[in-house]
Design brief:
It holds the Pfam family BPD_transp_1. It is found in: Cell membrane. It is a multi-pass membrane protein. This is ABC transporter permease. The protein is mostly helical. Helices cover about 85% and strands about 0% of the residues. The N terminus is likely disordered. α3 runs parallel beside α6 and α8 runs antiparallel to α10. The two termini are about 45 Å apart.
């Protein structure tokens, strides 16, 4: 009987440890799957299984990236893009959050202004680039405005949706307790909308890099987007891949930074 009990206990322990073991395997695979992909790419390029003119080996791309790092050329383009994204992002995010809170809390304002934003939102932001270039010129102002427009709508709709999803019972309790509109906003509406606001911030960050890359293709003399376009024009494929990887990493690190802020300031949200 004791041997059977001991055997059952070992089986139970094994079953209990199985999820943690699988999690370690998945984590290990997630770390090395990109490296495996790069290795396959390298071997395919070296053995001419893929055309090196269009897909140079990762080692060649890394060598090109190192040359650009040593010459500081890469940092100049990164700095220009980050400055444009940062200013345009702030120009769009702040009014987007404020108007989202206003329309989420006020049904009359939402009925009045909601259809206007709904009509403007589907317009492709890149499609209005010629108009923005015509109004603001080919300088950085046009890049700021284009990014701000794209960021604004994402922040506006995520913020408004977060406020509108606040359980009505919370609003009723605050009203019955004699809370002022500002207290209701500060203690109930704004905290309830924060998870949606941070979701909008992450979506807007990714969208910002997409927009700035396209904007820098046509109307810039610096920036990662300009660098990618100039590399394409000269058929410098390795340099073009460097630019693609750099802007991808920039977007990834920005989103990771926003997620870190979310864990710090919105601990009650599901992560």
């Amino acid at each position: 009987m004791s041997a059977t009990a001991r055997s059952l206990t070992e089986d139970e322990l094994r079953r209990l440890k199985a999820p943690a073991r699988r999690e370690r395997i998945y984590r290990f695979a997630s770390y090395f799957s990109p490296l495996l992909l790069l290795l396959l790419w390298e071997l395919s390029s070296r053995t001419n299984m893929i055309d090196q003119r269009f897909f140079p080996a990762p080692s060649a791309i890394a060598g090109t990236a190192w040359e650009m790092i040593v010459s500081l050329e890469l940092f100049q383009h990164i700095g220009a893009t980050l400055r444009r994204v940062g200013i345009g992002y702030a120009m769009g995010a702040i009014p987007g959050v404020l108007l989202g809170l206003l329309l989420g809390l006020s049904r009359p304002v939402r009925r009045l202004l909601g259809p206007i934003f709904a009509a403007l939102y589907p317009v492709p932001k890149i499609a209005i680039l010629p108009l923005i270039l015509l109004i603001f010129g080919v300088g950085d102002a046009s890049k700021f405005v284009l990014i701000a427009i794209g960021v604004f709508f994402l922040m506006f709709y995520n913020t408004m949706g977060g406020v509108m999803q606040t359980p009505q019972i919370y609003m009723d309790v605050a009203k019955n307790a004699g809370a002022t509109p500002f207290q209701t906003f500060r203690r109930i509406a704004f905290p309830a909308a924060l998870p949606s606001i941070f979701t909008g911030l992450k979506l807007a960050a990714g969208s910002s890099y997409i927009i700035i890359a396209a904007a820098e293709f046509l109307g810039a003399r610096s920036g990662v987007g300009f660098f990618i376009w100039a590399s394409w024009q000269t058929f410098a494929v390795s340099r073009m891949f460097v630019g693609i990887v750099v802007i991808s990493v920039m977007g990834y690190l920005t989103i990771m930074a926003i997620e870190a802020l979310e864990r710090r300031f919105v601990p009650w949200a599901k992560h």
